[in-house]
């Protein structure tokens, strides 16, 4: 059964969008009845005014029936295509080269998907002879017709870049094309209270262990499913992350509380090789973890826009709040650049309980209008402010 998709709005966006599958008539009728509802026929999406009240209303109405996506990827509108022999051969060449270069499975999947549509768009041309203006024209077509996100645009460009550079061995001039301006969005986080509610709402021991591991160690979901039993170094107090993003190994913190939970989990489920295994063996799926968190969010009623990656963002932000050195957090997250980690400093709460304004340090300053003998001022109520 297809699920409803609620798209996270861009910063300062006036509306947020919702995709409702055609067969969910009752859900569509309800949304249509809302005061600010509007249908976007080109995108096949609904939208409501972007307010906390509307977000909570939609999350409550569609509880258990929706997922959250962080961008408005319009691949829903792209029709399935028929692959001819030339396209199949080109895709096979790409897959072989990407595997030999040890690209991750998710990268290979995303690149092959992007190249499938690219080759189809220029199916009547010789792929080796496609020039930069034609590549830019294709990206422009995706942006204007399908309204692809900046992330999707970069994936398409990187896929085409890899084809001409790695598969065909051509010069950089073939893929040195315009990229979107990098956005500076702040990461979405759970508060400490929300983390507690999410964990408490998870009653299954395996599910609780998974969410605790991701949050307490700052893991990506792909890193969580790839954890092996031998990666738990209880004596030294760390988790070993093998081949994380960028093919880098690293260590991150192993909480004593998490270790206690993992020991209970191990006694009950007795995994063989992977720390978290599916019902039929093998790695636990990332989709299942996403569903676990979605269910916990629905039950606990916390931030409905949270995703599994929000747990990782929360890990970094909460450590900063506790005064942990930024360099240590960078190492545990596996960031190659400190600039990537520094974004979490912008998420920290700013209020007059934490930071004092320079105004508070001034002395002998006349703030209010001075009284005069000729004008009798009325006393203001004590609770006026």
Automatic annotation (TrEMBL):
Annotated ranges, domain Core-binding (CB): 89-168
Entry's transmembrane regions: none
PROSITE patterns: CB, TYR_RECOMBINASE
Keyword terms: DNA integration, DNA recombination, DNA-binding
DNA-binding in keyword set: yes
Gene3D superfamilies per the UniProt record, alphabetical: 1.10.150.130, Intergrase catalytic core
Annotated ranges, domain Tyr recombinase: 185-357
Source domain of life: Bacteria
Family recorded in the similarity comment: Belongs to the 'phage' integrase family.
Name of protein: Tyrosine-type recombinase/integrase
